[in-house]
Write a structure and sequence with these properties.
The protein is α/β, with parallel strands linked by helices. The chain has helices spanning 2-8, 22-36, 75-78, 118-134, 162-174, 191-203, 235-243, 260-264, 272-279, 283-318, 322-360, 364-457, 459-464; strands at 40-47, 58-63, 68-73, 90-100, 105-115, 152-157, 178-183, 216-221, 248-252, 267-268, 469-471, 489-494, 497-502. Among the domains are: 19-116, Nucleic acid-binding proteins (OB fold (Dihydrolipoamide Acetyltransferase, E2P), Beta Barrel); 149-281, 3-Layer(aba) Sandwich (Rossmann fold), CATH 3.40.50.261; 289-319; 380-433; 459-522, no CATH class. 49% of the residues lie in helices and 15% in strands. The protein has a five-stranded mixed β-barrel. Strands 7-6-8-9-10 form a five-stranded parallel β-sheet, sandwiched between helices. The longest helix is centred in the last third of the chain and has 94 residues, at 364-457.
């Protein structure tokens, strides 16, 4: 029966299996995987790591010799990792396995990452050491000597540990100087960045900063395991130590502990206490050495003075007397004095002979001819000067003549120019008259237009149609009957004049009779005379 039923209609076959949509099936698989593998540790080799993505997340794979699994480290977790992933690094990843329904893939979301054992750490440390050494960060030529007597010492360490107390105690015992402590974390997340920032911060201190610039730096930490000291193997710390312009002492761990900062530092100390001893000498030894050198200096100076005195006495004995020194100069002086008289006589005779030879060549005829030559030359110069003056005078006369002709023609030119200006002025006056006439016409038309608008809006046009304006005694227009009391003096304006009236009771008709027309407004109040009641009829108000 089952075979017959299956062959009847395959498309309409009934089944007891639950029917899922693709999304429901993917969600069920995701929940099953996450519940079963919500916390796992996976050991494998990092493959395909290219650094964090632009979003801050890191994507790579973990593999062994037979399989591989995709891995992701979210941005918040990546910043807390003690070790940065590297291509080919064997690690132990802790996290949970989940699926990605969009492509039917599964992956592990890593929450913690650590190298696979101490051997892996040492291999990573050795690889990093070779890399930094190839860049020349560990060369001995880069290392500088420490200052002999530093005035300020900068210490980069934890402010709560025993290391800082040992350093301060040793410096105080040996040679008290000013110590500036930059507190940092020396273990755990972010400790490497804090140590590097402290080294660069000390180097950034300038002359004008409130904090003194250290002469030497000490980066110190107590002993611990390789994992505890791993922050000082961080590449950022090593580069900061190599770039430091201030001489740096590395005092990380005990004497048997080695970190990469020890290779980059200028000096490595076996312990933090040893770093303090390297930084400053012993003051008592310096005092003793100074006293010894002072005594040796005084003894040497005394011996030197004695030697100089003995040498001076020996030289004084070897010197000749004053008479012996002056004997030869005196003899030369006497000989020169005796030869001076004879020399003067010979010189006088020679000068007289020379004068006689020169005077023998002088004749009156020669002097006369020379005087004539000078006079002739002077006459020629005077003649040339006269000619130059004549030429200058002629040139000035010509210029004066031209100037005179131009001055004579000036009135005619000025007269023509004035005539042209008069014509221009007349034309401008005509244009101004025309423009003023047009402007006055436009102004008259505008005034007439405004007057028509004013007349159309004036209340007097309304009065022409049979209306009137009622004012009170203060000449204020009244617009409501409620504001008028019986007996009030009123002024009523018609189109042809004004009349005065006295208000009566509400609903009472006024007396018949002619109204008094006032051609002009009545500014003053006027009392109306009441007529005598002789008929005995009820009283009626009067309009007059």
């Amino acid at each position: 029966m089952s075979s017959t039923f299956a062959s009847d209609a395959p498309g309409n076959a009934q089944s007891n299996l639950t029917e899922f949509s693709v999304s429901e099936l993917s969600g069920s698989i995701k929940r099953t995987v996450e519940n079963t593998f919500d916390h796992v540790r996976v050991k494998g080799e990092i493959s395909g790591y290219r650094g964090p993505h632009s979003s801050g997340h890191a994507y790579f794979s973990l593999k062994d010799d037979r399989a591989r699994i995709d891995a992701v480290v979210w941005k918040g977790t990546f910043s807390r990792l003690r070790f940065r992933p590297e291509e080919g690094m064997e690690v132990i990843a802790t996290g949970k396995v989940t699926t990605f329904p969009g492509s039917s893939k599964y992956q592990i979301v890593i929450e913690n990452l650590e190298p696979a054992g101490a051997g892996a750490l040492m291999a990573l440390l050795e690889e990093r050491r070779r890399k930094l050494a190839a860049e020349g960060l560990f060369d001995q030529n880069r290392k500088r000597p420490l200052p002999y007597l530093p005035r300020v010492i900068g210490v980069v360490t934890s402010p709560t540990g025993a290391v800082i107390r040992d350093i301060l105690h040793r410096i105080t015992d040996r040679f008290p100087v000013h110590v500036v402590v930059w507190p940092v974390k020396v273990q755990g997340e972010g400790s490497g960045e804090e140590v590097a920032a402290a080294i660069r911060g000390f180097n950034a201190v300038g002359p004008g900063s409130p904090m003194p610039r250290p002469d030497v730096l000490i980066v110190a930490r107590g002993g611990g395991s390789l994992e505890d000291l791993w922050s000082f193997n961080d590449e950022i710390v090593v580069r900061a130590a190599a770039e430091s312009d201030i001489p740096l002492i590395s005092a990380v761990g005990h004497e048997t502990d080695w970190t990469l900062i020890d290779h980059a530092a200028d000096v490595r100390a076996p312990t933090p206490t040893g770093a303090a001893e390297m930084a400053v000498p012993v003051k008592a030894d310096l005092d003793a050495q100074l006293s010894n050198l002072s005594a040796r200096l005084r003894a040497s100076a005394s011996r030197q003075m004695d030697h100089r005195r003995q040498a001076l006495r020996a030289l004084m004995r070897a010197l000749p007397s004053l008479d012996q020194l002056l004997a030869l100069p005196r003899r030369r002086f006497d000989e020169a004095a005796m030869g001076l008289g004879r020399g003067l006589e010979r010189t006088t005779i020679e000068k007289r002979r020379s004068f006689e030879r020169v005077s023998a060549g002088l004749r009156l005829e020669l002097l006369t001819s020379r005087m004539q030559q000078q006079r002739q030359a002077l006459s020629d110069r005077l003649l040339r000067a006269d000619r130059c003056v004549e030429r200058l005078l002629l040139g000035e006369k010509g210029r004066i003549a031209r100037l005179d002709a131009s001055l004579k023609a000036l009135p005619a030119r000025l007269s023509g120019q004035l005539q042209r200006e008069h014509q221009n002025l007349a034309a401008l006056m005509r244009q101004a008259d025309t423009a003023i006439s047009h402007a006055l016409s436009r102004s008259r038309a505008a005034v007439a237009s405004q007057d028509r608008v004013l007349q159309s809006l004036s209340y007097k046009n309304v009065l022409q149609r049979g209306y009137a304006v009622v004012r009170d005694a203060g000449e204020r227009p009244l617009t409501r009957a409620a504001g008028v009391l019986p007996g009030n003096l009123l002024s009523i304006e018609f189109a042809d004049g004004r009349i005065a009236a006295i208000s009566g009771e509400e609903g009472e008709p006024p007396e018949s009779g002619p109204a008094v027309v006032s051609p002009t407004p009545a500014p003053q109040k006027r009392k109306a005379a009441k007529p005598e009641d002789t008929s005995g009829a009820p009283k009626q108000g009067s309009l007059f």
